[in-house]
Design a protein that fits this description.
Radius of gyration: 24 Å
Order of helices and strands: HHHHH
Strand content: under 5%
Number of strands: 0
Structural class: mainly alpha
Shape: elongated
Helix content: 55-70%
Largest sheet: none
């Protein structure tokens, strides 16, 4: 079951006056989101959250954490795009693929109406 987010104003107040409560809210919402996912995905989601939390801990400030997590997301999307395009995402393999064969373009006479 999804709990509604508090209002932006409420979360801003929590960030200023009670950051521990805001962190508890974040942890609760992450836990609820993972637990509401199909069981087959939960282990992978826990692993992904572990990586995100690791980036947050290693970062010097929240902006760096945001940028690193964003980079992780873009890398993942690039891998997905490679999969969809039929590539593994490995740049060496992608560059070793032969170009598509050239096609012969046929001209058909146009009819004048």
């Amino acid at each position: 079951m999804h709990k509604p987010l508090p209002s932006f104003e409420r979360m801003l107040d929590m960030a200023k006056n009670d950051p521990e409560a805001l962190e508890r809210l974040r942890l609760d919402m992450v836990r609820d989101a993972i637990n509401s996912a199909p069981e087959a995905y939960q282990q992978r989601l826990h692993g992904l959250q572990f990586q995100i939390d690791g980036q947050r801990l290693l970062s010097k400030n929240p902006m760096q954490a945001c940028l690193e997590i964003s980079r992780m997301m873009h890398d993942s999307l690039q891998q997905l795009k490679g999969f969809i395009d039929g590539h593994t995402g490995d740049s060496q393999q992608a560059s070793s693929q032969e170009p598509a064969p050239a096609a012969t373009i046929l001209r058909f006479p146009s009819e004048v109406l």
